[in-house]
Design a protein that fits this description.
Layout: E1 5-8, H1 12-23, E2 28-31, H2 38-42, E3 58-59, E4 62-63, H3 75-88, E5 93-94, E6 99-105, E7 108-113, E8 116-120, E9 122-125, E10 132-133, E11 147-149, E12 164-168, H4 172-183, E13 188-191, E14 196-197, E15 201-202, E16 205-206, H5 207-213, H6 227-231, E17 236-237, H7 249-254, E18 258-260, E19 263-267, E20 270-273, H8 277-301, E21 326-328, E22 334-339, E23 343-344, E24 350-351, E25 363-364, E26 367-368, E27 373-375, H9 392-413
Parallel strand pairs: 1-2, 1-9, 2-5, 6-24, 9-27, 11-22, 12-13, 12-22, 13-18, 14-17
Antiparallel strand pairs: 3-4, 6-7, 7-8, 10-23, 15-16, 19-20, 20-21, 25-26
Helix pairs in contact: 1-9
Length: about 425
C-alpha cells in the first residue's frame, strides 16, 4: 500500500496533524494500535480529569461548545471529545493497526504493521510521551510482600489492600493519586523530589487562563536557555477538581498525608530518603512566586489590574523540622507502593538511526534528523504547551508546513519514494 504520509497515533496530536495535512491536500493515513484516543481509554485511572479547563480544549477547527467552559472534562468526556474530532473531519484512521517497524525504504519509508505494509515519503510519529512508566531500579529491592503499581495500572483505591501506601513522586499523577488514596482511609506517605507548585486559581482566574493570556504557554523551544532541561521539567502539581481547589503538599499534609524526601534507595528492607526535602520545597515555592511575578507584571502592563483581585502570595510549603530518612518496609505498615515516577515514550519499533544513547529522538522542534521524519505531541516540542490538547494544533501547523515544503523540494528534484 502507498500513501504520501503515514501518521502513527490517533490521539489529539495525530488527529491535529491529519487536519492540517488534509488542509494542505497531502494524501495520508493515520495508524492506531487500538481505537481513537486509545491511551485515554486504557491507561488512565477512574477519577482522572483534565488539568486544563474545558475552554482550553482547542484543536484545529474544533473546540468546546458546552455550557461549562471553566469546568474540567472527565475521562469519558475527553474520549468523546477526541472521537468527535475524528468523526467531524472524517480522519483517515486505520484502527487496530499496530506498527511493528518503521524503516528506510529507498528515499522514503516502509511502515510495517499487522495489517499490511505502507510505503510513504514522510512519517509523523504522534504516539505520545507517556507510553511506558518509568520505574527506578530500586524497585527490585522492594520486599515481596508489598504490592507495586504504576499510574497506568492504578484505577481506584478499592483495588489496593487496606493499609499504608507509599507514593513515590509528587508531580501531577503522584499528588492526585496520593490525595485520593488518603481520603479513602489508607494512610499515605509521599516521597517528594523535584516538583512544580502552582495554585489552581490566582487573583480570581484559573492559573491556565493567566498562563495562556500572558503568553507563558506560547514560549518557544528556541527562546529558552536550556531546552533539554525545559523538556524534562516535572508536570505541574495541578488537578481539575469541580470545586477548583488547589492541590499541593500543604493540602496533602492538611488531610493527614506524610511527606518524606526523594527515595534514594532500599537496603535490607528499609527505604532510604534524601535529606533535601526542605530544599526542594523551598525551590518549588520560589519558582511559583516567579511565575506569579510574571503574571502580575503582565496584568499591570496590559491594564488588567482593575478587572481582577489584587496580587497575593501563598503560604510556603510546610515541612517538619527533621523529616524521616528511613522507613522500614518489613514491618507491614506499608502494603503498597505506587511508582508515580514519570513516563517515557516507546520507540523500540523505530528502525531509523535517530535515537540518542538515552533512547530519545534527535530532532529540532519536531523535525527529526532523518529527512521526512517528524515528531509530535512531546513536552515542549515547539512551545511550552506542546503536550497539551491546546498545544498540538500549533505544532502540527508548523510541522505540516515543513513537511509540505519538503515534499515540494522532492518534486522539484524528481525524488520519489
Amino acid at each position: 500500500m502507498r500513501t504520501t504520509t503515514v501518521v502513527i497515533g490517533a490521539g489529539q496530536a495525530g488527529l491535529a496533524m491529519s487536519w492540517w495535512l488534509a488542509r494542505r491536500s497531502i494524501d495520508h493515513v493515520v495508524l492506531e494500535r487500538g481505537e481513537v484516543a486509545n491511551s485515554w481509554k486504557t491507561e488512565r485511572w477512574d477519577s482522572l480529569t483534565l488539568l486544563t479547563p474545558n475552554w482550553q480544549s482547542r484543536l484545529p477547527g474544533y473546540g468546546y461548545e458546552g455550557g461549562d467552559p471553566d469546568g474540567f472534562r472527565t475521562m469519558p468526556e475527553t474520549i468523546g471529545f477526541i472521537q468527535g474530532y475524528a468523526e467531524m473531519m472524517s480522519a483517515p484512521v486505520r484502527t487496530h493497526t499496530r506498527v511493528g517497524s518503521v524503516r528506510c525504504h529507498g528515499d522514503g519509508y516502509e511502515v510495517v504493521t499487522n495489517r499490511g505494509n505502507w510505503l510513504c515519503e514522510t512519517v509523523v510519529l504522534a504516539t505520545g510521551a507517556c507510553n511506558t512508566p518509568v520505574v527506578p531500579a530500586v524497585a527490585d529491592a522492594v520486599p515481596s510482600a508489598i504490592a507495586t503499581l504504576t499510574p497506568m495500572g492504578y484505577r481506584n483505591p478499592d483495588q489496593i489492600e487496606e493499609g499504608g501506601v507509599l507514593v513515590v513522586g509528587a508531580s501531577a499523577s503522584g499528588v492526585q493519586i496520593a490525595e485520593e488514596i488518603q481520603r479513602s482511609g489508607r494512610p499515605v506517605t509521599l516521597a517528594v523530589g523535584e516538583h512544580v507548585r502552582v495554585p489552581r486559581v490566582y487573583r480570581g482566574k484559573d492559573i491556565k487562563w493567566w498562563m495562556d493570556a500572558s503568553g507563558v504557554l506560547d514560549q518557544r523551544y528556541d527562546e529558552v536557555d536550556d531546552v533539554v532541561r525545559a523538556r524534562n521539567v516535572p508536570s505541574l502539581q495541578l488537578a481539575g477538581y469541580a470545586d477548583r481547589r488547589t492541590i499541593d503538599l500543604n493540602s496533602l499534609t492538611g488531610i493527614g498525608a506524610k511527606l518524606v524526601g526523594r527515595l534514594a534507595g532500599i537496603k535490607d528492607g528499609k527505604a532510604q530518603f534524601s535529606g533535601s526535602l526542605r530544599n526542594v520545597c523551598a525551590l518549588a515555592d520560589l519558582k511559583m512566586n516567579r511565575l506569579l511575578d510574571t503574571i502580575d507584571d503582565w496584568s499591570r502592563e496590559h491594564g488588567r489590574d482593575d478587572e481582577v483581585a489584587p496580587p497575593h502570595r501563598f503560604e510556603t510549603t510546610a515541612v517538619e523540622e527533621s523529616p524521616p530518612l528511613l522507613l522500614d518496609l518489613t514491618r507491614g505498615r506499608i502494603k503498597t507502593i505506587i511508582w508515580a515516577t514519570g513516563f517515557r515514550p516507546d520507540f523500540s519499533w523505530l528502525d531509523v538511526p535517530v535515537l540518542d544513547r538515552k533512547g530519545s529522538i534527535r530532532h529540532d522542534g519536531g523535525v527529526v534528523e532523518a529527512p521526512g521524519l517528524y515528531l509530535l505531541g512531546m513536552p515542549f516540542l515547539r512551545r511550552r504547551k506542546s503536550s497539551l490538547i491546546d498545544g498540538v494544533g500549533d505544532d502540527a501547523r508548523d510541522l505540516s508546513a515543513h513537511l509540505a515544503s519538503y515534499l515540494r523540494e522532492r518534486t522539484v528534484t524528481g525524488v520519489t519514494a
